[in-house]
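Figure caption, in words: inputs first, then the predicted bound structure.
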Amino acid sequence: MSERIFIGVAWPYANSQLHLGHVAGAYLPADIFARYHRTRGDEVLMVSGSDMHGTPITIRAEQEGITAAEVAERYHQRFMASWPKLGISWDFYTSTATANHARTAQEMFLSLYEKGYIYKNTVCQPFCSHCNRFLPDRYVEGTCPHCKYEGARGDQCDNCGKPLNAAELLNFRCKNCGNPPEFRETEHFFLKLSAFEEELIRWVETKTHWRTNVLNFTLRYLKEGLKDRAITRDLDWGVPLPLPGYEGKRLYVWFEAVIGYLSASKEWAASKGQPNAWQKYWGGDTKSYYFIGKDNIPFHTIIWPAMLMGKGGLNLPYDVPSNEYLTTESQKFSKSRNNAIWVDDVLSRYGVDTLRYLLSANMPESSDTDFSWREFVRRNNDELVATYGNLAQRVLTMVCRNYDNKVPEYGELDERSLTLIEKTAAMLCETDKALYNCNFREAIRLAMALAQEANRYLDEKAPWKEIKVDKAAAARSLYVAMVALSGLRVAFYPFLPESSGRLSTYLGFGSELEKESWILKMPVVGQELTPPEPLFKKLEDSVVEEETARMGL
Ligand SMILES: Nc1ncnc2c1ncn2[C@@H]1O[C@H](COP(=O)(O)OP(=O)(O)OP(=O)(O)O)[C@@H](O)[C@H]1O
Ligand SMILES: [Zn+2]
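Bound structure (adenosine-5'-triphosphate present):
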């Protein structure tokens, strides 16, 4: 039975270009999941957009001496150019700078305000007398009170993932001038998170299908007790408050950005000329998945669900399959720390499927994972080229050369051949299960294992020898290997859409796998074929040194 799946993906801050951490953490797993469900025949809506607001952008603008709008627009355009190169198949990608988003965020604010879930309070906020302004979020740095990490910021600690208030930091200082701020009174609006504590605990306790790290982090956080959080800031960049008298304040970026999932869905519906079409993705038995890196967990398992509970009538997350960090030398890739490997740069030298393969096979699903150029080259050469690509190339070239560019007659199948076909069908069942449960590494491992199995079959049968004595036997071996390839193109499709599309045409099927289904399709005897080009290119070992030198390690 087909399902309806909503996929929300973290909104990247438009303060820098994309690095491999973003891809491995959020965008690639979301895209794999979307492509998989579309191929299964499910209805999918995958949305996100650039986060144009917040202090990461104003800080960058101040550093460069340009406006925040200019910074945000520049990186938004770069993201838009990167997505197709990466093969990220958005149903809709927008930004938080739209009038639709501001309106949706303001409506959410007012709805929660009217129900008493948002209230006003006077608080002490850090104020730098040297810079003469309040210091929101990332304008303050200091030591995390929980894990003692020294580079924690006024909104969150990147090391232990806990959201923070500036006043909780130890040894806090102004990011701009390094002086310790004083605390001054200012009025802010608060989200009454405490009102949702019990409902949230009851809800999270039913989420036994969540990843252990996500579930444990969330429960620990909830059981420490929820504090109400300020959701406005003294800033002039962001979505204005929908109430008169607060012109110098804006909605806090984290309250506002998560609303993007809803506003993007509405904008998608409007763009299709069906303004109500978003509703079916936010109600009924639609399952909502949110793909994010682990620093975003509390915003998606606590704050956003609390907002949705308060508003009512909209689906809560079904799953939040958050990834851990992609690291270099055990440090989180970070724009701000400048230790990143940039997506556009990598894609200017290597194929997109090589990158997607490495990041899928080494995805930081359950622990932080170091990116390694040695692994990049090894997996490309040993697995993509020697195991999978070579299998396709050997089989299809022989078929084209010896059987007049047509899928050959295979006659009667022997035991060994039937076993490979059965294993291929079983692999599709197992990858289906793994992908359904967001076990991406497991799924891609299963597919590559079948490619190895098909190579063993081919080496045993040796059609290049058979053909000299028994052309019909060689035809059978090659046909059965084509059946395995037919299964592989489906299983690899969510991960490696470019090469799967090509393999699909080489096998005589169309290139649009999403129009098929997650089953083993047999190549059609007599179908005309075009001789194949290699699916992947071998990389020189020198790539490891060149790239490591480029990173300055
Ligand atoms: N090294 C990483 N590994 C895994 N996920 C990451 C990594 N860096 C960022 N992400 C995820 O990518 C998404 C978008 O990131 P965002 O633009 O918010 O950057 P960020 O986390 O502030 O990164 P930075 O530290 O580079 O400024 C978020 O869900 C974030 O968790
Ligand atoms: Zn200062």
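Residues 4-117+192-346 form a domain with the Rossmann fold fold (CATH 3.40.50.620).
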